[in-house]
Amino acid sequence: MSQAIHLDLELPGDLARFKLPAGVNERLSALLDKQDAGEELTVQERREAEGLVDLADTLTYLGLKAKAAA
Questions:
Q1: Residue 39 scores a pLDDT above 90
Q2: CA distances, 13 to each of 6, 8, 54, 58, 66 (Å)
């Protein structure tokens, strides 16, 4: 059973510019390129890629919320 929660957060004004650091983004791209090339990711690589995608999605979501609140 899923449950919804509501949080009120103060967002810094520059949050809309938050993104993955270049090195982290390059690592995510390398993992996704490997997968797209038909190579199987190790369990650790898959967990790493999933975590980085989740982080990127969260930063994107927060950036969009900050823009909408401005």
A1: yes
A2: 21, 15, 22, 17, 7
